[in-house]
Write a structure and sequence with these properties.
The chain is mainly alpha-helical. The chain has six helices and no strands. The protein is elongated, with a radius of gyration of 43 Å.
């Protein structure tokens, strides 16, 4: 490179020399520096994870305090209780638990009251016909 070109480039002559095909300078401690850098990154990552684990534990303590104050249960606790209730209800049974019969279905008393209600609205001559049978 000539003097004019060096002056025009300023301090970028080393980089320019590399671009034009010159040899790169080898750092004798490059591998050691890279290992130190990797170790520092790993250590920072561990510190970050520890910090966030601590913060999450503090949040969970706060959440548990709120749950205790208002009597709220965790979702997992509710599911566990429901599963235990289902298992206790079906204990000794080889089939799946039966579904509850809705109110008004299959009740004899209920059906009779419906018939009585219908009979109230039937005209008297028709009612006499039903009562004779």
């Amino acid at each position: 490179m000539n003097f004019v070109m060096k002056q025009a480039l300023g301090g970028a002559t080393k980089d320019m020399g590399k671009m034009l095909g010159g040899e790169e300078e080898k750092d004798p401690d490059a591998q050691k520096k890279e290992e130190e850098r990797q170790e520092a990154l790993r250590q920072q990552e561990e510190e970050r994870k520890a910090k966030y684990a601590k913060m999450e534990a503090e949040r969970e303590n706060l959440r548990q305090g709120i749950r205790d104050k208002y009597g709220i249960k965790k979702k997992e606790e509710k599911e566990a209780e429901a599963a235990a209730a289902m298992e206790q209800a079906s204990e000794g049974s080889l089939t799946r638990p039966k579904k509850a019969v809705p109110t008004g279905c299959g009740d004899e008393e209920e059906e009779e009251s419906i018939v009585d209600t219908v009979m109230k609205f039937i005209p008297t001559p028709l009612m006499d016909m039903f009562n004779k049978k």
